[in-house]
Amino acid sequence: MFSRRDFLIQAALGGAASLISPNTLFSATRPKKDKLGVALVGLGYYSTDLLAPALQLTKNCQLVGIVTGTPSKADTWKKKYNLADKNIYNYQNFDQIANNPDIDIVYVVLPPSMHREFVVRAAKAGKQVFCEKPMAPSVADCEAMIKACADNKVKLAIGYRCQHDPNTQAYQKFAKESTFGKVRMVTCGAGYFDARTTHWKQNKALGGGVMGDMGVYALQGARLATGEEPISVTAQFHTTRPDIYKEVEETATFQLEFPSGALAACHTSFGINMNYLQANCEKGWFKMEPFSSYTGNKGSSPLGPINFPLENQQARQLDEDAEALMKGSALIAPGEEGLRDIRVVEAIYKSVAAGGKMIKI
Ligand code: NAD
């Protein structure tokens, strides 16, 4: 763990930065903390069931605030997590968070169409920003979010929890080190059966559609298992429930080509339960199933099983990102990483709109 002493030393080293940016964590006027204060924005499923419980296990950060449009949720959360009244905001008075020294990090956990607005507002308030995946519905949104954070000298991390999982890191290493020669073909699927019919995931304007949602896991699988960025894509959309998936795609299949010649065939769906990754290499293979779950990601290769223990994936992500902020070191998945995926997602929509044409990225 990152100790208080390390933090104080690092804070001193960061002194020069603080002169230019009074809002950063390294500000000389800001009291030093053992744990950074986190405010969750949007108290839906992921905040309620995963992030808030994980924030009870973290060592480098803690839940101290919330931003919600629902007063009854504010009451429940206040009692459950012992939150101070002054750390509870709604969407209207959110910008006043700028004056609240308890809150160092704002974590945006809203429907994707709202990510840009709240990331930009958080950055302007001088807060460090975490944002859930998909980063935003468009490349233009992602670029605006990255720029707002840079302009306000705050960091932006995307909630790619799997990149903090040692099981993901194990297969990334095979690609990086060419353990089995070059990776030639990745097959990857991420999906579940979503029984909801009127959720934001089925609504285009709110950033729904499976490509941004489960699709980014399949895309990350291909990118991380090759260690490369795709140069072209072809894609197809399908639905078995056209009455529900009127505006957005239920299932997507897409094929990627990488600079080395590696290929990937990816599948993602709100109607099919799947979670697997297989990489075939020049001299071997590796596979994971599941590869992007909250718990129990595991796999194998000719070298043996891949099965590293992990107490809580979200707590690991939150702690590693908070530690990077404290140390001023690189984030595992910064805004630029979210943007890389959305570039491909945009190309996938273009391919489908053009009847499955190959689109260069
Ligand atoms: P959810 O629908 O359960 O929660 C969304 C929250 O946004 C709710 O509190 C809702 O009240 C609020 N909201 C505000 N304005 C809204 C509007 N106009 N329409 C709908 N909701 C509105 O969604 P969720 O599953 O918690 O997803 C939130 C974010 O977290 C998304 O970006 C999603 O992709 C991401 N997520 C990530 C993971 C992961 O594993 N990293 C898992 C689940 C969700």
UniProtKB/TrEMBL annotation:
Annotated InterPro entries: Gfo/Idh/MocA-like_OxRdtase_N, Gfo/Idh/MocA_oxidrdct_glycsds, GFO_IDH_MocA-like_dom, Glc-Fru_OxRdtase_bac, NAD(P)-bd_dom_sf, TAT_signal
**Top-rank taxon:** Bacteria
A Pfam family it matches: GFO_IDH_MocA_C3
GFO/IDH/MocA-like oxidoreductase domain span: 170-285
Asked whether the UniProt record includes Metal-binding among its keywords, one would answer no
Q: Which UniProt keywords apply?
A: Oxidoreductase
Q: Does the keyword Transcription apply?
A: no
- Limits of the Gfo/Idh/MocA-like oxidoreductase N-terminal domain: 37-160
Instruction: Report the Gene3D superfamilies cross-referenced here.
Output: Dihydrodipicolinate Reductase, domain 2, NAD(P)-binding Rossmann-like Domain
Q: What is this protein called?
A: Gfo/Idh/MocA family oxidoreductase
**Provenance organism:** Runella salmonicolor
